[in-house]
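User:
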Amino acid sequence: MHSVLYFAAFVAQATFYASAIVGYVVRNNRLGKLKFLYIPFFYCLANAAALVAVLKLLSGTRVEQ
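Assistant: Predicted structure:
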């Protein structure tokens, strides 16, 4: 029972990240506007930006204007 649940979670997560990658690849054409590709791409992009911000904060890097 547990292995089926873990496998289903793995498939769902792999599908989400695969659609984010496809969304990245097609971001500059008409397919990139499809919500099922754009939303996972935007979610991953926002999380990556948050990670960069936290790493810069922890390293003491300042944003210069």
